[in-house]
Design goal:
Layout: H1 5-10, E1 18-21, E2 25-29, E3 39-43, H2 55-75, E4 81-85, E5 101-106, H3 126-139
């Protein structure tokens, strides 16, 4: 896609710090560096979000994630954990509409990155949970 910043990055039209590349994916350091080593993995094929993936693309991307995650852990042995994040849609904080996965190394609870999930379990009854699961299950192909 002509105006896509990530397509321009993978095509070397925009300078970047590549950490991995093969025929299916491209991985580079996120310019924001939420934590040291914050890496983005993109499919080379332009797709906007997870909803445009086919099975092969999903497999191609997902099989590279552990490989790059292990490289980060080896490069930074002080790393205590990692967040792996994929945002889909503006409301879900996707800001670049070329699908990408963030690998965010975690060095401790005070490393200036946090995610907060509230406990909303009291908002749904068992019947509502059962109904929701059935609705989704009926759509899985």
């Amino acid at each position: 896609m002509a105006d896509c910043i990530f397509c321009k990055i993978k095509d070397q039209e925009i300078p970047n710090y590549k950490v991995y590349e093969d025929d299916k994916v491209y991985a580079f350091l996120d310019m924001s560096q939420v934590t040291k080593g914050h890496t983005l993995i993109i499919p080379k094929k332009h797709v906007s979000d997870i909803f445009e993936y086919d099975d092969q693309l999903a497999m191609d991307l997902s099989t590279r994630i552990p490989k790059i995650a292990r490289a980060l852990r080896t490069a930074f042995p002080e790393m205590e954990g990692m967040n792996i994040i994929n945002n889909n849609g503006e409301v879900a904080y996707q800001s670049v509409f070329h699908s990408h996965v963030h690998l965010i190394p975690r060095y401790g609870k005070e490393d200036d990155f946090s995610m907060h999930f509230g406990d909303h379990s009291e908002q749904c009854s068992q019947d509502e949970m059962t109904q929701t699961a059935q609705i989704i299950k009926a759509q899985v192909n």
